[in-house]
Amino acid sequence: MEHIRTPKVEQVRLLDRFSNKSTNGTLYLTATHLIFVESSSNNSTSAAQETWILHHHIASVEKLSLTTTGCPLVIQCRNFRVVHFVVQRERDCHDVYSSLLRLLRPVSYEELYAFSYNPKQNDQQREEGWQIIDLGAEFERMGVPCDQWQLTNVNRDYKVCETYPRDLYVPITASKPIIVGSSKFRSKGRFPVLTYFYQEKKAAVCRCSQPLSGFSARCLEDESMLQAISKANHNSRFVYVMDTRPKLNALANRAAGKGYENEDNYSNIRFQFVGIENIHVMRTSLQKLLEVIGTRSISMSDFLVGLESSGWLRHIKAVVDAAIFLAKAVTVEGASVLVHCSDGWDRTAQVCSLGALLMDPYYRTIKGFMVLIEKDWISFGHKFADRCDQLDGDPKEVSPIFTQFLECVWQLTEQFPQAFEFSEWFLLQIHEHVHSCQYGNFLGNNQRQREDLRLRERTHSLWAFLMSEKHNYLNPFYSPAYSEAHPVLEPSTLPYHFKFWRNMYHQFDRSMHPRQSILKTVLTMREKNRNAESTLQALEKRLHQLSVTPVVTSDPPAPPPTRDQRSNTLPPRPDSLILGAPINHKEVQRQEEDDDNEQEEVGEEATESTDTERMVEGSSGTESRKQSYGELEGTYNSESAKEEPAVVSLEFGVARMTC
Amino acid sequence: MEFAELIKTPRVDGVVLHRPFMPTVEGTLCLTGHHLILSSRQDNTEELWLLHSNIDSIEKRFVGSLGSIIVKCKDLRVIQLDIPGMEECLNIASSIEALSTLDSLSLMYPFFYRPMFEVIEDGWNSFLPEDAFKDLESMTDEWRLSEVNKDFSVCPSYPPLVAVPKYVDDDTLRKAATFRHGGRFPVLSYYHKKNGMVMMRAGQPLTGTNGRRCKEDEKLINATLRPGKRGYIIDTRTINVAQQAKARGGGFESEANYPQWRRIHKAIERANILQESLIKLVEACNDQSHSMDRWLSKLEASNWQTHVKEILTTACLAAQCIDREGASVLVHGTEGTDSTLQVTSLAQIILDPACRTIRGFQGLVEREWLQAGHPFQQRCAQSAYSNSKPRQEAPSFLLFLDCVWQILRQFPCSFEFSEGFLVLVFEHAYASQFGTFLGNSTAERAKLSLPEKTVSLWSWVNRPQELERLTNPLYEANSLVIWPSVAPQSLLLWEGVFLRWNRSSKCLDEAYEEMVHIIAYNKELQNKVNSLRRQLAQLETEDPLLQTP
């Protein structure tokens, strides 16, 4: 609290990013949040709207030069929210600015929200939350340990590789000296270990970092390690080694004593470059993208040119292409694959996890997706703290690698609307919390660090929270039967299948979103169907009690005809079914929270605070389309907005948090 | 029958048909006067029936004695026929070429087509101007139906009956017509019930370089203004283009002569540019070898999405003037038969919930496109694959449908029809067994006796089984004005048309069916619950003792 110079500033204007609209209100600065409360005079009909911004979400604060109306303050958030305040007095603005500067640069983990966040759970509940995901059980599900793969205790004390988890799976023929030798020949000691086992063909997906081969160095233990991986799979005589970097980058690394596997030294490997760019290219690419889409009244042409020149979709496609290569090698050829990049925690994580998602329907369920993230990202040491800038660190370490992974998954959900148990809201929510530092899961850079921080005792698990509201993240079109019929997804990577993910990058720019959401409508209908089913049963029971035969029965309706029975003339379909505005989902959620609240009136302080702050901006149901279509002076005012269809009414109790 | 002369080889066996995402079919190829038919002559296999008029262009390729014909259709589909025998292949190719480019309208298939279905309601009589006027009369008495154009002499592209301000007589209309391009004097396009504001459309005023004026024209459009109110003239051309039009006798309304009107210029491109844009877009969509960057840059270079945005923006502006500003609007471009109609019809989609129903949309297409004299015959003569030099082809109507689709995407529950209906209308505008889109104007259609000699598309659509197929299961009547977002981030490529043949839609189809199923199940449950409730209620009234405490 000592960093907060001015806890409250009145008469602040919040400018809309894409129109000339603005709202007046009061700005509050708390230890965890920046809160903007609209003055009630703005909108007498509904409760004052609030915008909650978690300090951890703020990526940058910029104080622009003083104007006649006041001092502008522009805040960019990691969840792609951009807010533009105008503070009347320069001094207030400066106070807020310098407080924020300090607040958004925590220097120690203990300052992070997760350590103060308290969702009113006792220790047992908290511990249960952490136990939802069990990676040992996950390897068992894959069929490991088995006659070819075993659990090794070599890293029990993080002695061999401190960025790997304690429990690692290796071929049974890989003895301890081989492992240790191999680890010495790999960047950061990240030797080849199992991450996914494709039981059907006994093919393995392994991951590691680049070899320290330089121009000519070799390591017999590392060579035997690969040999062991190869031998563990009887279906294929060779192992694919996928270097996910562009060849040029790998070549350059040789000069630094690193590099890639020489096919002459390793028997039975097939070496392949994939060409995914590094973290710096990705960071710049996203910056460019955000610049383009943040431009006011951008023309179609500039938008498309900007989208192209940012390279963002090209990078997304490269990751998906690599994952498809991996999945094909494993499922079609039955070959084992070793994936690495430089350190084996960015591109390698992307490709391994996405590849597994393509191969295994389990990872396309809500629980399975959590497991996948826990395994390939959290436990194998994707540096969330550095990449997501959790502590004040090196800006060159920040990169949207995990965001890209989520986007790749989203692109797949667009192609396979029935293959995923979750909807894009799930992905958005995970993205939100990767940056919120509200839960312990993503804190730190690796498991060892997390243990040192005693996160399991001191913070809560995001997975427990997401599980508790699983119903909000369901994809109503999900069909387990589809996954049975198509266990392996074969997406098309023609460029037009990759689309700009508006609901991610314009999550908070409500004027951009469809005003009605198919996803939400169908989800609500599914809910209604469930209720109607039980009503029906109750009615039937009652009639039976009266010894009357019901005129109709609750027997499930005839199953829909199977494909061959149907005529060939299918009605052309809307080309994409997933187009929900996340906001709408918040509405559902909120409604439920409100329902809950009727039972237990007690104010739960800051329970779902990030949710709250996520939904608020301009979320009045009567808010009008903010754009003006052209030359008529001025834009629409809210007075005429009543004509907006009431599809997004959000006047729920937002203000349940104490400030 | 002169078709026989054009068909050199009516039948070839052993022809192989290749279509993307579908199994190849081997069978017999037959050419008839209007169709290309390929049948494997086995049960359960699909036959290909392709209207010659749907063929946009063909390409021939030879490998040894095996010839291939690549048939590119106006609905953007591309198929390949492998034909054994050089001579047969050449014969087939030249026959297709001749049959798909017949000039005479009276040889078109609609004149030969006999419906295999029961016509419940004759679509030719479903949307007559006099019926539309009855609706208007129920809302206001400020308008009358003028017969001034009954023999098409005042304006050849207008229907015989047009709605005009009540106190403007036919003489004034005749004089105003001489001052407007193509005789297209300002007529009523839409009446906004909520505030009594109107949208009119016309051709450009023929002011010429010396600033000619026409008192009757001024009187006519001023008669639509309420006392003390100002109106907006939306000129769909940029000010520069409008200025240049003066040199060719056209022009725009000057402030001096139309003091009660404020003119706004927007930039909707003209026919030839739109056609070029379509060709480029389809080329980009069909080239599967593109990298991501190349695809995006081709998509950008086609400018198609830019046109969609411009048209939608202008339509929103017109709707904004009417609904938000409470002002009447006059829309025109040059001829008043393309961009003008795009704007007036889309504005109605935004403003008028009735236009978002299946029937209302048909009415809109009839009123604002067919009867309003959009030259379908000229515009839709060729589509994106045409090799010949474009004459008057333009995808004006397709762009309109694209814009409707964009709004549908943003308000997926506010339209009674599904995307399929828009695709259907697109297909039939370019090639059809129905007479609806033949001819360039009501006058031409009357001359060809289309209503007597052909079947209307609407006769076919307005049957329960078709309606069911075209209905949007999510539809819930929404009586409000719907304002779409026109930000580039909100506008998408219409994949249902442009990528329709380039992707497998199986997954999406199945998901759509799942959605239909969920909604159908919901209705079924509701019905059951209701009937059980009724049953219980009945029992309870019969025997009060049963009532639950």
From TrEMBL, chain A:
Similarity-based family: Belongs to the protein-tyrosine phosphatase family. Non-receptor class myotubularin subfamily.
Active-site residue numbers: 341 (phosphocysteine intermediate)
UniProt GO MF annotations: phosphatidylinositol-3,5-bisphosphate phosphatase activity; phosphatidylinositol-3-phosphate phosphatase activity
Protein name: Myotubularin phosphatase domain-containing protein
Cross-referenced InterPro entries: Myotubularin (IPR030564), Myotubularin-like_Pase_dom (IPR010569), PH-GRAM_MTMR6-9 (IPR048994), PH-like_dom_sf (IPR011993), Prot-tyrosine_phosphatase-like (IPR029021), Tyr_Pase_AS (IPR016130), Tyr_Pase_cat (IPR003595)
Species assigned in the record: Perca flavescens
Entry keyword Hydrolase: yes
Acidic residues: bias regions: 592-610
BP terms from Gene Ontology: phosphatidylinositol dephosphorylation
Automatic annotation (TrEMBL), chain B:
Aminoacyl-tRNA synthetase in keyword set: no
Membrane protein topology class: Peripheral membrane protein
MF terms in GO: protein phosphatase binding
Location, primary (coarse class): membrane
Residues in the signal sequence: none
CDD domains, A to Z: PH-GRAM_MTMR9, PTP-MTMR9
Myotubularin phosphatase domain segment(s): 123-498
Gene Ontology cellular component annotations, sorted alphabetically: cytosol; endoplasmic reticulum; perinuclear region of cytoplasm; ruffle membrane
Pfam family for this entry, one: Myotub-related
GO biological process, one term: phosphatidylinositol dephosphorylation
Subcellular location as annotated: Cell projection, Ruffle membrane; Cytoplasm, Perinuclear region; Endoplasmic reticulum
Family: Belongs to the protein-tyrosine phosphatase family. Non-receptor class myotubularin subfamily.
Protein name, entry field: Myotubularin-related protein 9
Source species: Perca flavescens
